Amino acid sequence: MPSLDRTSPIPLYHQLKQALMARLKQGEFRPDRPMPTETELMRTYRVSRITVRQAMQALEQDGLIYRVPGRGTFAKEPKISRRLTRLSSFSQDMQERNVRVASRLLDFRQEPANGAVAEKLDLAPESPVWFIRRLRLADGGPVAVNLSYVRLPRGQSITVAELETAGSLWALLEEKEAQPVEADQTLEAIAAQPELAKLLDLPVGAPILLVEGVVYTRWGVPVEYFQVFNRGDRYKFVLHRTR
Amino acid sequence: MPSLDRTSPIPLYHQLKQALMARLKQGEFRPDRPMPTETELMRTYRVSRITVRQAMQALEQDGLIYRVPGRGTFAKEPKISRRLTRLSSFSQDMQERNVRVASRLLDFRQEPANGAVAEKLDLAPESPVWFIRRLRLADGGPVAVNLSYVRLPRGQSITVAELETAGSLWALLEEKEAQPVEADQTLEAIAAQPELAKLLDLPVGAPILLVEGVVYTRWGVPVEYFQVFNRGDRYKFVLHRTR
DNA sequence: AAGTGGTCTAGACCACCTC
DNA sequence: AGGTGGTCTAGACCACTTG
Question: Are residues A195 and A180 in the same domain?
């Protein structure tokens, strides 16, 4: 019944993955119960085994199913955390957690990159970069301060208006032909300094989860260097790791 | 010249991946310079294209290369962080960072699981679990306190001696037919409580990076629930994320 | 026009598990 | 014995980039 669209530009294995995710979400496959076998899926969706396996591999990667040689494929207990393995922005993150969020723009300007930033973005020192500083609010209260240094393809530029209409920085970057697909990041616990404490409405010295990193496009070009100072008491970083 | 062993039980694509990783490590392929094409690799290693692609996909996943349709495959700037995407234990982690580490066993006993632990490990409350508490030292100073609650397959058991000879808990778990392959974990910043502060040689209220999670076997069975309290000033969590 | 990676097919053998 | 997922082959078409 749920046939795939062979005229669509979307790969078959991706359509199949989406279809199976929908069925998983609906609870059609119970946790730890066998899912349809690869052969069955080949028949019902009329695709080759390799295509089925590409879809299943993606689902396993996302932690939605597990496979046991000789036995079969099984659905996993649904968990919110599972989907967060992927690279996701603050807006996406919060949306998935069903939190009402807002952003207050504190700074927005083009400026010459200092040494550290230039190195992270693989630029010559003093090259122009966009600097964006935002206060993140969830359910009305401050949760984080976000610093972004953005490097755009030559000739491209961004405006405050664009950032606001796009909804998120990453959505905007996609439009600018600089879609982020991977990131190196570090997480550490630090104590809040006075300025930060004031912005986040915390006592000086309160624990802060600092997430810092560089985001790359598909071609390995760095587009953004960011620092996010999260209130320790209001933010948890969720992660699903596979071998 | 670097032929693959077809009699080996190790999959060809994995052998090929290892071979290419070795060549990358040696610096044979310069960053952002084209690597051999898939067709070339098919010829030189005498394998099919799918096998080549399986190997390349794994390398891309690990962040060692990137591929551009229509152009080719390219080596990436080598980074230490890249390899830490994988699931790794404290011992592995530190070894890769070239830090001399030691572990002091604080507690080791079998005890009935309380409600929270039982739920994480998917056990009935009061089921017996092993409780291990360790102080982690790097270069002589304390860096973390590690709490592990371990669930073993029926009939299996562990001893202090085994833990010490195996070197790490995970190495031991592999022997016990409970190899960890994936984990759900959360990271947050908290303030050090008095007992913890004393163990880690910190003032009360100092920032701590708490990493907490459940580790699963290949079959989706939880084996370990852990809490690691890391000194904020001596520990950074490094991560490479892909879309 | 030629070459690249992205996708897809049909078919095959294997180790392993269940019956 | 039959079914499962894991691996591997040979071949094909496509969109895209490069000369």
Answer: yes
Residues of B with Cβ-Cβ distance to A210 under 8 angstroms: 189
In a shared domain, residues A167 and A133: yes
Q: What is the pLDDT along chain A (243 residues), one digit of tens a residue?
A: 457 888 888 899 999 999 999 999 888 998 888 899 999 999 999 999 999 999 999 998 888 888 888 889 999 877 655 555 555 656 566 666 667 788 899 999 999 999 999 999 988 899 999 999 999 998 889 999 999 999 987 777 888 888 887 777 877 777 776 777 788 888 999 999 999 999 999 999 999 999 999 988 877 778 899 999 999 998 888 887 776
Q: Distance, in angstroms, between A204 CA and closest chain B CA?
A: 11
d(CA A128, CA B223): 50
CA distance A135 to A103: 6
Chain A span 1-40 residues with beta carbon within 7 Å of strand C: 11-14
* B87: nearest CA partner in chain A: A243
Same domain membership, residue B177 and residue B71: no
Task: Quickly count helices (H) and strands (E) in chain A.
Answer: 8, 9
CB contact under 8 A, B232 and A189: yes
Taking the C1' atom of C7, which residue's CA lies nearest? A11
Place of tokens 């993150």: A93
Amino acid identity, position A197: A
Bin A70: left if φ > 0, else alpha if -120 < ψ < 50, else beta. Answer: left
What is the extent of the structural domain holding A36?
12-78
**Å: B14 CA to C6 C1':** 21
Are B182 and A82 inside 8 Å of each other by CB?
no
